[in-house]
Structures are given as structure tokens and as C-alpha cells.
Amino acid sequence: MLSAMAYNISLAIINCWSWWWEAKNQHDALARTMLTISVPSLVYVWYKWTTSRLPPGPYGLPVIGYIPFLRSNLHEQFTEMAHKYGPIFSLQLGRKLHVVVNSMDLAKVVAREQDNTFANRSPPLTGLIITYGGMDIVWSNNNAHYRNVRKLLVSQVLSNANLNATQVFRTREVRNAVNEVYNKIGTKIDIKKIAFDTELNVVTNMLWGCSKSDIGDLLDGFQEVECKIIELMGTPNISDLIPFLSRFDLQGMKKDMQRQLEYVDRLFNHIIERKNKVKNCKIDEVDGRKDFLEILLDLKEQKNDPKSFSIIHIKALLIDILVAATDTTSTMIEWVMARILSNPGVMKKVQDELTEVVGLKNIVEESHLPKLTYLDAVIKETFRLHPPLPFLIQRCPSESCKVGGYTIPKGTVIYINVWAIQRDPRNWSNPLEFNPKRFLNCKWDYNGNNFKFLPFGSGRRICPGLPLGEKMLVYILASLLHSFTWSLQKEEEFELSDEFGFVTKKRKPLITIPSLRLSDASLYL
Ligand code: HEM
């Protein structure tokens, strides 16, 4: 039955074809030949056009593409372009196609529905240099090594159990910060520097068991080096965009990053040597636990194959964590303080809450933090307007796929424009207004499940340091705002402009003057 039907259909096709092809004269024959060729070609072109359409975007110049039109405030420029081209647009930068995703719906497609496809990175050359060839977490593709080291970091450093066990470091370092400010009362203070050193000391204690002061002056230049590392990772580099020019290192960025690596390498060699000599630094032993460096060194010794986990892997992991933890946290503390200082009403509410929850004859403890709901809302509202990583960290699809009906070829560099999403009037009423109340009534968190609000990212690449980052932000801010009253210098012109970068920071450092808020001096010691 079926074979008879197939026979009849083929017969019909052949009959039609012969009718089509049997020309009455030469003129007909030519026309039919042309049509026979052009109809399938048109169908093919139409099919290709509809199935492989790239997202819309601006035209660029031959070879270099849109590179000469990039501005320094890329987050603002991409947001303006989103208004013109829509929720997803593409731009050719040299040899590389870049796609910017600007809506919460499409961010969800990338970071949830196709999270696995988009779980690779597209590391810049400078990122590869400082992480010993991308042997870290941040710049690794989603491969077995990446999954293993991320799991190791989460289970050994950032788990709830470990965070509870290392509370002693946070308490000590935050108290040290309060004491340092107390000793500088009435003078100008760079809040970011205080926050940076506090976070750095907490993290180095968790990583290798010592604070900055325990290892001489080795970490003295670290903040400056880190700033440079972040600047170099966030600046568009011709060597990445037009690879055949990379040998010339036209912007000198490769050389510059190699200089930073020399410092980092010297630092880690010293720390590892020291650790090998005195297996247990002079540190407070936490629960008899090993610090992360000890765990990593043991792991290296256990591996039969030295290539699978070497000293290089350890150093790459350490620089990742130091950079990822300190600059983000201190940048956010500066932003939150700036927002509070520019809103006296908000300052009053934060301090009233601290007086109520902590009291004026007491100091802030970690147990108070969950009760500071207004401060928490202020921090979240600051994150909304000033996400430190405005495009998260670029992702890269491992195969060609579709987003919003457009084709995204394998290897495209993908930015999720959190800066635009968190200021989008379709997601937020009066989006430019600083209004912490919007975070008071609903259940908001940083877990990346609500795609309107993604300061720590979402999906399998979400920031693994989130539990520590969140704790440290609230703890440092609560302590500084509980212990001191802060004011600006008289001549200080207050402004809230930002400077785009891999971590986008306040353009002008926030310099403030503290005065005492507590009457009992012993609370500062
Ligand atoms: C205020 C504090 C912090 C903020 C705002 C922040 C933000 C982020 C963001 C937006 C990402 C990229 C997520 C994505 O691509 O979807 C990220 C990645 C990362 N963060 Fe954080 N972070 C903070 C603190 C920390 C801390 C304390 C650590 C470690 C102790 C850390 C370690 C990392 C690492 C290793 C990655 C790479 C994850 C991966 O590629 O799988 N961060 N962070």
C-alpha cells in the first residue's frame, strides 16, 4: 500500500518535472533554466537568512569593525545602543563578534535556559597572563578542571561550615578596622582603603593563615598591583580583537600584565616557601582545620600526575580569589557609603536601626547582621544602581545556538548588561531614583533567580564568593556606621559618577571624616 503511494507520488513529480522542462522553443528553455536555478537559490538564501540571522547592530569599518567607535564608558554606550537596537545586539570588533544582552528575559535564556551552552569564557590575553594561562576559575572554560577547583573552593573555603569556623578572622579584622579609624578620628579617611585591607586580611587568613602584617611589607603594594590587573583585564585590547597583531602588543598591555605577574609570583613564592617551612604559620588554628593553601599543597602531593595539579594551578587559584574578593567588596563599600552620605535621611534611618538592634553601649556582632533589614535594603539598592561588574564576566557559547530568534555563533563573546537591566524602567519604577524601600517589602536575594537583579551573576557561573562577600559588606558597613558619624570635607564637591572597568568604581575616591558616635572609648579598642 505504502510503496504504491510512493510510486504514484514519484511518478507525479517526474511528470511535472518533464512538463516544466519540455520547452516549446529556445526562449522558453532559457527562461526555464534560469528559473530552475534561481528559485532553489532564492529559497536557500531565504532559508539561510531566516535561520542564521545575527542580532542587529551597528556597521563598522572593514577589518577593525566597530573598534574606533568604542567609548571609555562602555556600560553607558551599550545601554544607549540597547535603546536603538533592542534587547540583544551584536557588534563586530576586529575578528570577534560580540553580543550584548540587555533584557531580563534574554538574560534568563543565556544564564538559565542555555546555561550549559554559555558556560565557557572568552578570556582576554591579559587575563590569561595573570592566571598562568587560564588555570584558574574565572577564565577557565567549563571543563573538568574548572568544575573540580570551583567545587574545592566552595567546599573548603566558602561553605557555611567553613565560614562559621573562620568567623574569628572576620571579627578580629573588622575590630581592627574600627580601631584604625578611631586612631584617625577627625582626619580625612579613604574608606575604600580601609575596606580593602580588612577584606584582604580576612581572605589571606582563610587562604594561608596570616594577615598582611604577618608577612612583612610583601603585601604593601598589592592594592596598586590589583588595580592595575583589573584595569588591564577591562581595557579592550587590539591583540584580542585582531589576533594577527598580537605579536606587536600595540598597547603594551601584555608587557604591563607580565610586570604585575612578576610581583604576584614573587609574593606567592614567598608565601608557599614559608608555608612549606612552617606547616602551620603562627596563626590561630581554626578548629584544627587546615587553611586552603595547606589543602592545595597536600592535594598536589597526592596527585600522581604533576601536570594535573601543580604549583602553577595553586598560584592561579590564589590570585583569582584575592582579586575577585577584595576589589569588588571594597568598591561596593565605597559606593554604599557614598550613597548614604548623599542621603541624610537614609543615613539617619541606618543609624537609628543600628541603635535599635545593636545599642550604643555595644559593638556590632555577626549575630546582629540578619536583623539589619534597612541597611540590607540600602546595600541592595546600591548594587542595583552600581553593579561592580556591569556586564558580569563575559561568557562564550560552546556551540552555535539561538537567543531571541537570532543566531549566536560558537565562540561569540557574550555580555549580560546587568547595568541596563537594573536601570530598565520596565523592571523598576523611577529606576534612577535611589530608593532602598523597593528592597524592603519583597523577598530579594543575590542568588540570581530574579533576572531583574543580578549583581553576583546567575547560573553555573554565579559568584561562588557570594556568602562571604555579602557577610563582609554588611559587617564592615554596620560597624563603621555604628561606631562613627561620617561627614564630607567642607570643600569636597560631592558627586556619584563612575568609571567603567572590569570592576566599575567611583570616579573620584570617597574621602570622609569620622567623628565618635559611642561615648564609651573602650568600645573602640
Ligand atoms: C561584593 C562582593 C562580590 C561581588 C559583587 C562579586 C561579583 C561577581 C560576579 C558578578 C561574578 C561573575 C558572575 C558571572 O559571570 O555570572 C563573579 C565571579 C566570581 N567571583 Fe565574585 N563577587 C564578590 C566577591 C567574591 C568573593 C569574596 C570571592 C572569593 C572569595 C569571589 C570569587 C569569585 C570567583 C572565583 C568568580 C568566578 C566564578 C566562575 O567563573 O565560575 N567573589 N563575582
From TrEMBL:
User: Is Oxidoreductase one of the keywords?
Assistant: yes
Kindly list the GO molecular function terms attached to this UniProt entry.
heme binding; iron ion binding; monooxygenase activity; oxidoreductase activity, acting on paired donors, with incorporation or reduction of molecular oxygen
Q: Which SUPFAM superfamilies does the entry mention?
A: Cytochrome P450
Pfam families, A to Z = p450 (PF00067)
Q: Which UniProt keywords apply?
A: Heme, Iron, Metal-binding, Monooxygenase, Oxidoreductase
Positions annotated to bind heme: 463
Q: Which InterPro entries match?
A: Cyt_P450, Cyt_P450_CS, Cyt_P450_E_grp-I, Cyt_P450_sf
- Gene3D superfamilies in the record: Cytochrome P450
Cofactor names from the entry are: heme
Tell me the domain of life. Eukaryota
PANTHER family reported for this sequence: FLAVONOID 3',5'-HYDROXYLASE-LIKE ISOFORM X1, OS08G0547900 PROTEIN
Similarity section: Belongs to the cytochrome P450 family.
Q: What is this protein called?
A: Cytochrome P450
